[in-house]
Amino acid sequence: MIKPKDEIELAEAIAATNGPLRITGGGTRPLGNPVDGTVLDMTGLTGVHLYEPGALTLVVGAGTPLAEIDALLAGENQRLAFEPMDHRGLLGTKGASTIGGVVAANISGPRRIQSGACRDFLLGVRFVDGTGTILKNGGRVMKNVTGYDLVKLMAGSFGTLGAISEVSLKVLPVAETQAVVLLEGLEDQTAIAALSSALGSPFDVTGAAHFAAGLTIIRLEGFNDSVSYRAKALCAALSGFGACQIETDQSQASQLWQEVRDLKAFHDVPGDVWRISVKPSDGPEIGGRLRSLGGQVIYDWGGGLVRALLPEGTDARAHMTGLKGHARIERAPDSVKQQFGVFGSEGPVIDQIAAGLRAKFDPRGILNSGLMG
């Protein structure tokens, strides 16, 4: 195992390596195809390098535990904008999630429909490519970018283009309160129509999810009076879909969204878990097909993100005929991952671009080789 203490040691380690490297942080989310190689432990690159609450700016080492960042921000009544999922319950892992791992996988939770993905709040990034060269892109303010936007490129690259050493993030204030509008007993198609109506309303929805068991939930956040008014107005606007309730207990509301974010219903339940991105209007179609196979389904992002628990060895992609979208495996035995591929192909053009980028940034093919196919 290689565990560099700083960016210089990281660059020297990568430059000197003679074989493949498996980049790890806290080890909480082993997503992707199985990877062989010497472990490159990034947890030594930790610490807050800059925090300016007034400027909503945070710069930290990639190995910094997410829990430490949350605690730091909470002290200033601030938070990360992208609500990253805690994969430990779903994947049966332990340890402490790191911000580098969150960024590398572009982990973005229910609030994505309102505020954006993890990559949208990245101001800058420092990383070491496959040759051992230290690269940096972006800064500490939002600005337009010409050429390759490496900041966005690194988010979701799963360590295949470089080992992230530092990230700069824009953070947001914590909302004064939240409320959840609940509808019960809706079929999937009707529920997604209700969510689409809510998202198209002027009430600034920050979460829109549906459990196929029949519970539909919509989140509103902000100042107390505003949330109270918007929740009542939204209920009135959705009256054609049935009676709704408003949950204002902060603990109960937070628990509901944590269950959506972390897929609590699939914890400790046998089966493979797939993550499927489609047009929201196509969500009920793919959901219905997978449920007919004995699967369970949870819809997020207004129906655009479908998470499915399927019998082991079921290929979700084989049931997406006629639908545009992308499916990846979140949890499955290595044999299933190898059989179907975790990420699958996004078409010859995208695949060619991805291969070209990997060849540019990792010409020796040593960084998380094979993780993304």
Structure report:
- The protein has 3 domains: 167 residues, Uridine Diphospho-n-acetylenolpyruvylglucosamine Reductase, domain 3 (2-Layer Sandwich); 86 residues, Alpha-Beta Plaits (2-Layer Sandwich), CATH 3.30.70; 85 residues, 2-Layer Sandwich (Alpha-Beta Plaits).
- Helices cover 29% and strands 25% of the residues.
- The protein contains 12 helices and 17 strands.
- What is the CATH architecture annotation of the largest domain? 2-Layer Sandwich
Secondary-structure element series: HEEEEHEHHHEEHEEEHEEHEHEHEEEHH
Q: What proportion of the residues form beta strands (DSSP E)? A: 25-35%
Tell me how many strands there are.
17
What's the CATH class label of the largest domain? Answer: Alpha Beta
Query: How many discrete structural domains?
Result: 3
Q: Indicate the multimeric state.
A: single chain
The helix tally amounts to 12
* Helical proportion, percent range: 25-40%
Global morphology: globular
- The CATH topology assignment of the largest domain is Uridine Diphospho-n-acetylenolpyruvylglucosamine Reductase, domain 3
Strands ordered across the widest β-sheet = 13-10-12-11-15-16-14-17
Between the first and last Cα atoms, what is the distance in angstroms? 24 Å
* Structural category: alpha+beta
Q: Main beta sheet, described? A: 8 strands, antiparallel
**Low-confidence spans:** 142-147
Radius of gyration: 21 Å
Residue-averaged pLDDT: 95
